[in-house]
Amino acid sequence: MALFDLPLDRLRTYRSASNEPGDFDEFWAATLDEARSRATPAVLTEVDTGLRSLHTIDVTFSGYHGQPVKAWLIRPRDADGPLPVVVEFIGYGGGRGFPHDFLLWSAAGYANLVMDTRGQGGRWRAGDTPDPDGAGPQAPGFLTRGVLDPRTYYYRRLITDAVRAVETARALPFASKVLVTGISQGGGLALAAGGLSGDAVSGVIAGVPFLCDIRRAVTITDNDPYAEFARFVRLNPARAEAALSTVDYVDGVHFAKRITAPALVSAALMDLTCPPSTVFAAYNEIPGCKELQLYEWDGHDGGQGHFAQRAVRFANAL
Q1: Kind of pairing, strands 43-46 and 54-62?
Q2: What is the mean pLDDT of the chain?
Q3: Scanning 32, 77, 250, 284, which has its CA 20 to 30 A from the CA of 210?
Q4: Can you say which residues are annotated as belonging to the binding site for substrate?
Q5: Which CATH number covers residue 230?
Q6: Over the stretch 262-287, which tens digit does the pLDDT of each residue have?
Q7: Is 12 domain-assigned?
Q8: Which residues belong to the active site?
Q9: CA 14, CA 251: separation in Å to the nearest integer?
Q10: pTM
C-alpha cells in the first residue's frame, strides 16, 4: 500500500463534485412511506446460544416493500431498565453470521441490533435474508444490481432495510436511544440511516464508509466493489450515464448533509477500497458535531481495534 489519493491538506477541505438529484428527498420519502405502509410487527424469538451472560434474540422485521429482514438482538442479561441500542450494519459480502461474532457492544453495556444484509452472506460471513427483487444485467456482486434505474437499484432496498432497522430498534420497549454503526458498507449504511432517520438517531459511527462520492470512487480505484461498476460500464458504455445517475441517489455525501446527530467517522490514507477522498467528501458535509479518526498508515482495515475502542468511548459520551 502507498499514499495514492489527494494530499491531506486538500482532503480536509475536499468537496464532492457529485450533484444531488433534484427529487432526492421526495424519492426517499416515498420509498420509506411505502415500506412503512407494508410493515408488520417485528417477531422476536429468544434463542439459546450458550452465551450465558447475554439475552440473544432472533429478530424478523419488515424492510423494503414489507419484505422480511433478519437480525440479531444481543443485550446484557443482567441489565434492568432502559438501554441504549446500537444498530449495526455489516460490510460488503457478509451476513449476520453468529451472535458470538458481535460481542463488543453488549460487553460495553448496550443492546446491539445486528441487521442481516439482504442477498449477501456468501463471501465472508453467512446471511439469512434473501433479496427477491434483482433486476437487469449486472456485474458480479451487488454494486450494479438494478443500477439502470434508482427504483430497481439494490441499495435502495438495502438502505430502506437500514432505516427500518432503526425504527425497529426505537420501538423496543427498553430502548432509551438509538445509535447506528458499521464498517465499510456498514459505514455507508450508517451514514444513510443517520441522514434519513433524523432525530430518531442519537449518534452515527461510520468506519471507512463505502458508497461515498461514488462517481469519483469508481474512477480512482481498481479494487472491488467499486471496480464492479467499471467492469459493468466497460461492457455497457451506452448505459454509463444512467448508472451514474442512479448511484447519485445512494451517495453518502448527500445523506451526510442531513445527519443531525453527533458523528464519528474514520478514514485511512492508504485505503484502496474506500479511497480517503471519498470518505472526506461525506465527512466534510456533516453539518453538526463530528469527529474524524484518521489512520495514516492503514488500508481498508481502518484502525481495527483502535477505532473500535474510540467508537465505544464516543458512544459512552453521548
Answers
A1: antiparallel
A2: 95
A3: 32
A4: 92
A5: 3.40.50.1820
A6: 999 999 999 999 999 999 999 999 99
A7: yes
A8: 184, 271, 300
A9: 16
A10: 0.96
> What are the DSSP calls for 214-277, one per residue?
HHHHHHH--STTHHHHHHHHHH-GGGHHHHHHHHGGG-HHHHHTT--S-EEEEEETT-SSS-HH
What SS3 state is found at 136? coil
Tell whether 40 is covered by a domain: yes
Handedness of CA 24, 256, 70, 113 (dihedral sign): negative
Tell me the Cα Rg of the chain.
18
Percent of the chain scoring above 70 in pLDDT: 97
Residues 6+ apart with CB under 8 A from 241: none
- Provide the domain count of the chain: 1
pLDDT higher than 70, residue 191: yes
Cell of 136: 437487469
Q: What gap in Å lies between CA 187 and CA 180, rounded to an integer?
A: 9
Question: Which residue range(s) make up the domain with 37?
Answer: 8-316
Give residue 139's pLDDT: 60
pLDDT > 80? residue 123: no
Q: Does residue 3 form part of some domain?
A: no
For residue 161, is it within any domain? yes
